[in-house]
Amino acid sequence: MQCSFDERGNSVPTVLLMMQKRLYLEGGLQEEGIFRINAENSQEEYVRNQLNKGVLPRGIDIHCLGGLIKAYLCKSSLLPGRKALLEFWSSLASSSKDVPSPRNYGS
Protein backbone atom coordinates (compact mmCIF):
# COMPACT_ATOMS: atom_id res chain seq x y z
CA MET A 1 0.00 0.00 0.00
CA GLN A 2 1.49 3.30 -1.11
CA CYS A 3 1.36 6.06 1.49
CA SER A 4 1.81 9.82 1.40
CA PHE A 5 1.97 12.44 4.11
CA ASP A 6 -1.08 14.53 4.95
CA GLU A 7 -0.95 18.17 6.07
CA ARG A 8 -0.33 17.04 9.67
CA GLY A 9 2.64 14.89 8.71
CA ASN A 10 0.81 11.58 9.15
CA SER A 11 1.53 8.74 6.76
CA VAL A 12 -1.83 8.00 5.13
CA PRO A 13 -2.66 5.71 2.18
CA THR A 14 -2.36 7.74 -1.01
CA VAL A 15 -5.69 6.48 -2.33
CA LEU A 16 -7.39 7.89 0.77
CA LEU A 17 -5.78 11.29 0.22
CA MET A 18 -6.91 11.24 -3.42
CA MET A 19 -10.50 10.59 -2.34
CA GLN A 20 -10.34 13.28 0.34
CA LYS A 21 -9.09 15.88 -2.13
CA ARG A 22 -11.86 15.04 -4.62
CA LEU A 23 -14.46 15.14 -1.85
CA TYR A 24 -13.30 18.62 -0.85
CA LEU A 25 -13.10 19.89 -4.45
CA GLU A 26 -16.61 18.72 -5.25
CA GLY A 27 -18.13 20.22 -2.09
CA GLY A 28 -18.94 16.83 -0.62
CA LEU A 29 -18.72 18.00 2.97
CA GLN A 30 -21.63 20.36 2.38
CA GLU A 31 -23.72 17.51 0.93
CA GLU A 32 -26.34 16.29 3.37
CA GLY A 33 -25.90 12.65 4.28
CA ILE A 34 -22.46 12.39 2.65
CA PHE A 35 -21.39 9.50 4.87
CA ARG A 36 -24.87 7.99 5.34
CA ILE A 37 -26.45 7.80 1.88
CA ASN A 38 -25.21 4.86 -0.19
CA ALA A 39 -24.47 5.02 -3.90
CA GLU A 40 -25.45 2.31 -6.36
CA ASN A 41 -23.50 -0.92 -5.82
CA SER A 42 -22.48 -1.10 -9.48
CA GLN A 43 -20.88 2.35 -9.37
CA GLU A 44 -19.12 1.60 -6.10
CA GLU A 45 -17.74 -1.64 -7.53
CA TYR A 46 -16.53 0.18 -10.66
CA VAL A 47 -14.82 2.91 -8.62
CA ARG A 48 -13.18 0.32 -6.32
CA ASN A 49 -11.74 -1.46 -9.37
CA GLN A 50 -10.41 1.83 -10.73
CA LEU A 51 -8.91 2.76 -7.35
CA ASN A 52 -7.12 -0.60 -7.29
CA LYS A 53 -5.46 0.55 -10.52
CA GLY A 54 -4.53 3.88 -8.95
CA VAL A 55 -7.19 5.88 -10.80
CA LEU A 56 -9.98 7.96 -9.30
CA PRO A 57 -12.55 8.39 -12.09
CA ARG A 58 -14.27 11.71 -12.73
CA GLY A 59 -18.02 12.16 -12.62
CA ILE A 60 -18.74 9.72 -9.82
CA ASP A 61 -21.57 10.27 -7.37
CA ILE A 62 -20.35 12.21 -4.33
CA HIS A 63 -22.12 9.74 -2.01
CA CYS A 64 -20.18 6.90 -3.65
CA LEU A 65 -16.98 8.72 -2.77
CA GLY A 66 -18.11 9.33 0.81
CA GLY A 67 -19.12 5.70 1.17
CA LEU A 68 -15.77 4.46 -0.10
CA ILE A 69 -13.88 6.71 2.32
CA LYS A 70 -16.03 5.47 5.20
CA ALA A 71 -15.63 1.82 4.16
CA TYR A 72 -11.87 2.19 3.81
CA LEU A 73 -11.54 3.69 7.26
CA CYS A 74 -13.80 1.08 8.85
CA LYS A 75 -11.89 -1.82 7.29
CA SER A 76 -8.53 -0.26 8.14
CA SER A 77 -9.31 0.27 11.80
CA LEU A 78 -7.09 -2.63 12.90
CA LEU A 79 -4.02 -1.59 10.88
CA PRO A 80 -0.88 -0.29 12.64
CA GLY A 81 -1.56 3.25 11.33
CA ARG A 82 -4.93 3.44 13.09
CA LYS A 83 -4.03 6.65 14.93
CA ALA A 84 -3.24 8.46 11.68
CA LEU A 85 -6.48 7.21 10.12
CA LEU A 86 -8.50 8.41 13.11
CA GLU A 87 -6.83 11.81 12.80
CA PHE A 88 -7.70 11.79 9.10
CA TRP A 89 -11.34 11.01 9.97
CA SER A 90 -11.30 13.78 12.57
CA SER A 91 -10.10 16.28 9.97
CA LEU A 92 -13.15 15.35 7.86
CA ALA A 93 -15.37 15.59 10.93
CA SER A 94 -14.16 19.09 11.71
CA SER A 95 -15.28 20.13 8.21
CA SER A 96 -18.69 18.45 8.22
CA LYS A 97 -21.46 18.18 10.75
CA ASP A 98 -22.56 14.92 9.13
CA VAL A 99 -19.59 12.79 10.23
CA PRO A 100 -20.16 10.36 13.11
CA SER A 101 -17.57 9.95 15.81
CA PRO A 102 -14.59 7.77 14.82
CA ARG A 103 -14.92 5.73 18.00
CA ASN A 104 -18.04 4.15 16.48
CA TYR A 105 -15.85 2.38 13.90
CA GLY A 106 -13.65 -0.61 14.49
CA SER A 107 -13.95 -0.64 18.24
From TrEMBL:
Record keyword Transferase present: no
Domain of life: Eukaryota
Keywords: GTPase activation
UniProt GO molecular function: GTPase activator activity
Transmembrane parts of this sequence: none
InterPro entries hit by this protein: Rho_GTPase_activation_prot, RopGAP1-5
Protein name as catalogued: Rho-GAP domain-containing protein
Source organism: Ilex paraguariensis (yerba mate)
Lineage of source species: Eukaryota, Viridiplantae, Streptophyta, Embryophyta, Tracheophyta
